[in-house]
Amino acid sequence: MIGVFDSGVGGLTIVKEIFKYLPEYQIIYFGDTARLPYGTKGADFVQRYSAKIVNWLLKKKAKLIVVACHTSSAWASDFLKEKFSAPKGRDLAEGENKMPIFEMITPGASEAANSTKSRKVGIIGTSGTIKSGSWEKKLLELNPGLKIYSKPCPLFVSLVEEGWINKGVTKKIAEEYLEPFKEKKIDTLVLACTHYPLLKKIIGEVVGTNIKIINPAESLAKELKLFLKDNLQIASQIKKGKNHQFFFSDQPYNLEKISHLCFDRQIKPIIKDPF
After folding, report:
1. Which residues 6+ apart lie within 8 Å of 272 measured at CB?
2. CATH 2.40.170.20, applies to 2-103+217-271
3. Element (H or E) spanning 14, and its range?
4. What is the residue extent of each domain of the chain?
5. Helix%, strand%, coil% for the chain, nearest 5
6. Confidence (pTM)
7. How confident is the model over 48-90, as pLDDT tens digits?
8. Residues with active-site annotation
């Protein structure tokens, strides 16, 4: 199975894109709803619980890990890759306990760096993701000439989880958050939080059609598809079919609304806190 984890329900937007690009593979999802949000936690906490979740997914026979949480991607991805990951481009030996690990920053940053013409890129995310500076670091590695403008937009998460996707108040909050990016004349905006793609329509209306919006979930799914095409041994070890499993460490808030927004149907949650 492909293991996907997040601090809560937002990672279902990444599952949505994996279903789109890799519909044949089974998904095992873990949302750490007992300890959310990760966006306000420190790096040590995020690294510790991210490692616990990867260990658990490994025991559940996941053959590949997607770190869907942007905060975990920012604070813990290097730590997880050193601890668990096999080098990219190398097939795993039979019985090997390491696995490929994919995070949200690299594919999204690559698409943003390749998309911008003005070399002015905006990033919106949780406070933890923005504070980490990981997106800026990766973008500048790819193109040192970029000018990057970052802003936390914490209310977006609550608006999505309430299902307020098309409310007037949501648009007003988006205008308040995003006006500075229009003043900076960016031409590319990265949605560096799992919840934000569900607000892409309103965000697009606010920033205008001249700004390209990058959804890192889609960037990740495309990269994952190419990786499995090039690593057939790993691909052959991943279960196929529709028997997807969705685990949460506590009852997720408004799961019905979020799952309908992502999949147009209700998913069956399995409530289990293994930690």
Report:
1. 247, 248, 249
2. no
3. helix 12-21
4. 2-103+217-271, 105-216
5. 50, 15, 35
6. 0.89
7. 999 999 999 999 999 999 999 998 998 999 999 999 865 554 4
8. 69, 193
